[in-house]
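Minutes, project check-in

Agenda point 3 was the complex the collaborators sent over. CS summarized: two entities, 804 residues total, and the question is how they sit relative to each other. Sequences were read into the notes so everyone works from the same version.
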Amino acid sequence: MLIVKKFGGTSVADKDRIFNVAKRVAEDYRDGNDVVLVLSAQGDTTDDLIAKAHEITKRPSKREMDMLMTVGEQVSVSLMAMALQDMGIPAVSLNAWQVPMKTSSAYGAARLKSIDSDRIQAEIDHRRIVVITGFQGINKYDDYTTLGRGGSDTTAVAVAASLKADKCEIYTDVDGVYTADPRIVKKARKLKEITYDEMLELASLGAQVLNNRSVELAKKYKVKLEVRSSLNESEGTIVKGGTKVEKLLITGVACDRNAARISVMELQDVPGVAFNLFNLLAKNNINVDVIIQSAGREGTKDITFTVDESNLEESVSILEEHQEELRFKNIIVNSDVAKVSIVGTGMMSHAGVAAKMFEALYDAHININMISTSEIKVSVLIDEKHAEKAMNAIHDKFGLED
Amino acid sequence: MLIVKKFGGTSVADKDRIFNVAKRVAEDYRDGNDVVLVLSAQGDTTDDLIAKAHEITKRPSKREMDMLMTVGEQVSVSLMAMALQDMGIPAVSLNAWQVPMKTSSAYGAARLKSIDSDRIQAEIDHRRIVVITGFQGINKYDDYTTLGRGGSDTTAVAVAASLKADKCEIYTDVDGVYTADPRIVKKARKLKEITYDEMLELASLGAQVLNNRSVELAKKYKVKLEVRSSLNESEGTIVKGGTKVEKLLITGVACDRNAARISVMELQDVPGVAFNLFNLLAKNNINVDVIIQSAGREGTKDITFTVDESNLEESVSILEEHQEELRFKNIIVNSDVAKVSIVGTGMMSHAGVAAKMFEALYDAHININMISTSEIKVSVLIDEKHAEKAMNAIHDKFGLED
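CS then shared the predicted structure for the full assembly.
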């Protein structure tokens, strides 16, 4: 069996943890399996490198940032290869160039385009464990790129797809996918299985178990994913295709506290105004989430939307720079908001799921700011301080603990 | 003018030093020159990375060590590019793969084979300062290699040669080449010029100003080298071709305290015994320096030679492993020895130079262990404790302070 295993930065933070991973991997190898490891940068390395850059300049170019950041994983993979070799297991480390893993050119937020599996396969054929840098790639200019935080999951799935691996295991600090974050909802229950689509909605809604793009890729290439704990041997959650077998109406409750709300007030009500506004943000690689448009004062309109908190400052300054051409009066922002969502393929065939969620919030005296729905999810924006109460109320209402 | 400038690890150790270098380089750039920078890893980075590896395993594979080590320069070059950009100067960093700089396959001790200057030239044509990783290369397997300590000098000269640069400036913590190490010989004098050949002998004899291989390359490709101080603006020493113009008999006195002496006792006196012994060491990439063969007890012979102290342990264990086939009785080692040498093209046309050196040592009551000579140098092996006294005595004898 060919298994791709991905371990995050915490799992390779120091000597002991590196050997813990090496031992786990060694078992699989000795059982006759072929193993490919995908690693992130050690512990705080990424943050340390960012700090190093910010000491030099407040606005480092993205190209040079990626040149700097990519050393993080290279350190991890070489140390892991050394640890495996020390245990008598043949291993070789490869970085993005050596594989090679090609991406789009967008520094800091590149998309994986192709993985050449020839070298990896050749190393596997020599019965070596191949240790690959996650999170990074190279672009058409022969420059290093990074996939953005959490990108190592994507690397792992893409490597699994290109090798037609039997399984791709993502090791995290939680031991699977829960019906809600167990730190917030005490009655949260671990799911044995979840569909790609449900996982996708959960991932994009702030359940930080798996990177979104990695699930998309897994779905596209039918990679059997498994989310497992890096801390213990307990069974994880399998993410796979197909429709829901369990009879649950919804699969989980997720909460995204990093949402920030931006209201652009009193825009001229002319055709194309919404397009212009969102096109401007899109061109700057800012993802907009929930959008609401409402009538403003005196024939104008107000547009309210959410972005990730990390994009708030940039979004506002971009909008302000274009105030004249967009013709709005002012901007109101609020980052003390949380987006709480329910997800489940079950709701596709059941009416009243959204209503049931709203009822739960009403019972808990929580005010809803904005609402957004898709086929398999319902999201509401509420005050951040109510997030915990809201999640528990919804979890209870849908009886997810059973 | 196209100038290649090489700065060592101390010169880029922290933010302030990085900006110091950036400012110096910026002046050249603003004067209309094209500049290529070659950098080593920051300060103690190399040692830190070695420590990281040794924490994992006592004997890391050389391939993985190079994978680990090469991140050091990548950090330096990206930070330097950021610093230059912060000052408004276009800059781009490149590592060994991006150039690319191809080397032989010997991990940890690779030789530069070729530098493709297309990308560097293209970046220069865009009026960018190109910041290149020294010390590293890639081999035919698409793996990273390192050139060994001091390899950044070689990188700089090779880059200068491939670009047909007008000048290659090597910035060090000394401000030029002296007639002897000024820390040891107080009367040492800075030389304005020195020939490649003299510099070669000095470099290989322990004057740690320039890496030997870099001078060889400079000589081969007629690269005009200049050794300058990274700490001040004082004029340095120019290393160039031609024969000596100054009337000095010798150019300098050098001392290598890292020499270690190995005596292989009572070898069978049969043909090929010396060849077998030294071939064995060569195959393990161990450089042997001075060699003396003398008659041993009862028809046997003794062979004594020196190696670098860092190779002592490995040399001895290799010899002991092959004791049976080499047929010797025992090995005696001594690492408390120093090699003191005088160098100068002037001695080619003058007899009695060696004798004058021996006289200086005799007057100072210093015993000579071994002697070795070439056309332009004379080396003697003495007890390490006499090294300082020996250098001063010789420096005085030849009147080098004038």
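Noted in discussion: The two ends of chain A are 35 Å apart (CA to CA).
Follow-up: revisit at the next meeting once the mutant set is ready.
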